């Protein structure tokens, strides 16, 4: 189960610890990397002259970058052999790549964790039944298929290593629509017979799925899919005597007259049929339902005969001694009959309450609604019901009973848990003794909080740029955001400072721009994709210049900074998504963005705060007289092929370099588990690829297995 390497690093590193040490030094001491990973923002690209390209890109790189089309540059950065590319450029008479750029490309490649190495077991994964993949797209099917099989193998391995505390439940943090949990439940022994046709999957111990989700509508949708796919049995359809039910309702409300036929039906229903009727006449017992249905049919068949007999008896004279008169009204008689039915129903519920509690252990999926704020899952785990062990087809009652002697043990898992949710899942191994292992695939690094505060880049040749907050965004200074749950997790990453740099900043920090770029997948970009988002970035960069020129925004400088453009920045304005038609041309984009900003606020056309109202008013006022001729002038100044290539080159370099940012975030999570391993709380930990990169770029799973306590000997690194 465990891969050869604890981290999927390049072969030139002697060990995972050697890789981490060199990675930390590179990230903390390489100015070009720091500039491209968080030191620049695309919105500042045209707010200075001659442009950001000439300020941040080394001079000896510029000619080569401008000589390459976007896809040619991506091939050079990601795929081509750099030595071969140098020789080919010299032979063709084109600008060759400079030596410093070649070295930079080599460094980024070797410090980026290997992402396309899948184990043999992963490549032989069996497809999920079509029912289970209901609602999934191609990407999600690949992820759920691969990861559910991986989790099964991991749970089996952990259970074999600790037979006294086998994994009984899989806790999915951030379950969403519970696609993963549904697939895991379908593989469990004792699951619904139509959930999977592979009988080999139904051998071994049952495992429950605990789906933890903060949004109630996601849970409701997931339960519906559970029943549609057969993973969870749908509730039985109620059976009722409709004629009796309608008669009881009408008599209870006093809105209808009781006929002789109805009184006879009520009198006959006082037996087993009444016992089976629930609230509002709904049957709670299948045997009672069947008996009531049979009696209803018999009533219809003999109705005419009974009515004739009753008429004859009514006409025949009766001795006065045999006649009993009930002086109550019809409504009172019906109310008494209804009360008797309700009383019998309450008795029936009391008799079946224990059986109902026992059947909760048959549910393979349990949903817990709540928002996690840290790695303490005690409030979630305390709600988990024990599972009934044994085969559903086994006639032995003891084999199908709940095995209370085996304590519940948990494996915490997640596919693409956003931001700090990945940290909570990993910390669960430390904070919850019943959690035996974790397997977390992270995503959305831009949503991570910062443990040490924002970075300050003191790059030679560039003044420090202020860390900015959107002028119409949430009011919170990043300098004050020091979340103990944020990045970095490990003590080593939080305290590292390069020894060969005087007054170096302590700790590894990545601002939101760097973390956002780490979510990119440049190796998967096609020419059409590249052209599309480069065009969007180009329009947004020009709009930022228009805002600056028309006084909507002002330059922001650090305290004491001189009144020049170098090192200054312009605060961004959040726009969000626009209609597809807005990206057809620069005028369409600007008009659409201005219209949205002028009306935006809390989403219903009104400003959500005084700051937002001021920004919205400024945009509406100062952009009102912008003409198409003005926009054409901006397009001429910045829309030529050279200026657009400047932007695409810097963006490609940023996305390429951010592969190291993601590798550092993943290595930090592994290092955190490694530090728990030194304490004896973790027995083993590793990182490996679980998805194909072309299908799902965020494909690195971080795995940790609990140890037995303090003082356990550390396992040697592979």
From TrEMBL:
<feature type="region of interest" description="Disordered">
    <location>
        <begin position="250"/>
        <end position="326"/>
    </location>
</feature>
<feature type="region of interest" description="Disordered">
    <location>
        <begin position="341"/>
        <end position="362"/>
    </location>
</feature>
<dbReference type="InterPro" id="IPR025714">
    <property type="entry name" value="Methyltranfer_dom"/>
</dbReference>
<feature type="region of interest" description="Disordered">
    <location>
        <begin position="181"/>
        <end position="211"/>
    </location>
</feature>
<feature type="compositionally biased region" description="Low complexity">
    <location>
        <begin position="267"/>
        <end position="283"/>
    </location>
</feature>
<dbReference type="InterPro" id="IPR052220">
    <property type="entry name" value="METTL25"/>
</dbReference>
<dbReference type="Pfam" id="PF13679">
    <property type="entry name" value="Methyltransf_32"/>
</dbReference>
<feature type="domain" description="Methyltransferase">
    <location>
        <begin position="139"/>
        <end position="450"/>
    </location>
</feature>
<protein>
    <recommendedName>
        <fullName>Methyltransferase domain-containing protein</fullName>
    </recommendedName>
</protein>
<feature type="compositionally biased region" description="Acidic residues">
    <location>
        <begin position="295"/>
        <end position="309"/>
    </location>
</feature>
<feature type="compositionally biased region" description="Polar residues">
    <location>
        <begin position="352"/>
        <end position="362"/>
    </location>
</feature>
